Amino acid sequence: MNAATTLPREVALLERLAGGFGRSSLQYNQRHESDAELIRLPGTTSVLALTTDAISEEIESGLYTDPYFIGWMTVLVNASDLAAVGAAPIGILLSQTLPSSMADRELEALQRGVRDACSACGLPVLGGDTNFGTRLHMGACAVGLIENGRPLTRRGATAADRLFASGPLGLGGAFAFARLIQPDTAPPAFQPASRLVEGQVVRRYATCCMDTSDGVLATLDELSRLNGVGFALHAVEEILHPAAFAAARAAGLPPWFMLAGPHGEFELLFTVPEQAVAAFRAEARGLGWEPQEIGAARPQPEISIWMNGCSARLDTRAIRDAYADAGGDARAYLARLLRLNETVTLCDSP
Questions:
Q1: How confident is the model at residue 174 (pLDDT cuts 50, 70, 90)?
Q2: With contact defined as beta carbons under 8 Å apart, do 284 and 151 qualify?
Q3: Residue span of the structural domain in which 242 resides
Q4: Res. 89: pLDDT tops 90
């Protein structure tokens, strides 16, 4: 069950690392409560959203190898955090450590990926820092603004809410499985798009929101922990991106593995109260966007998903910690997921 008394490993580590730090009196959110840090601007009703993210692990593990994709993802991972709090983009600061041996064509592709992502996200490069070293390192700090209304955080869901995703899920997981575990298999096409525009709509209706950068089940586990609710998900084949479902079948893996992480698809998961769903859907349609309803919140803090003709209860805390327990080894992680799949608890109803 999700209602574990211990913190998830990642959260516990962050508490240990940041527990002694001071906090600004202007900060709106507590630790872990939002994807971006939220700072009240004195004398205004506006809130500044700040986030910083690097993709060192993805480069080191071999998950990201194409220079253009590395540049794109450097921007996208930060833009996704702004989207999850409903902020309008202001700009981005880049931190680049470039290998002296990097070929000109690779450097050009890297910068083109950054440039194209910045253009797509509406995040002009405000400045940054460039260094040289033995290995490529890419990171950034993105800045956004919430001019009025409440910021969107990970807290606020109730057991009466309906659960939505900004798009089909599992493609990031399928990409990671192919890259790290089946390197001879072509991964599905994967280049996530910014959800910044959609996030600003979500902020007006949702009770909580978080992006799926670490995988859908890790995201749901965190939302469950912070809100004291659970989630009953629709059929796995309805939730998964068709390419993710096909990848799972081709690899002989349970389809829910594509939701497990540790790499996600950078969509938004959010809850909307029943009385706001119609208005939310209408505004989304005005953008030409069709958010995907994937389930509902429940009073019991556990996660279930409909598959193989019945509802299956997943131990999302164990699933979330499995990658760390495997020491970051992708094959050992898969072995742990296979063992966890044998312990899935079946329920009578979704």
A1: very high
A2: no
A3: 162-347
A4: yes
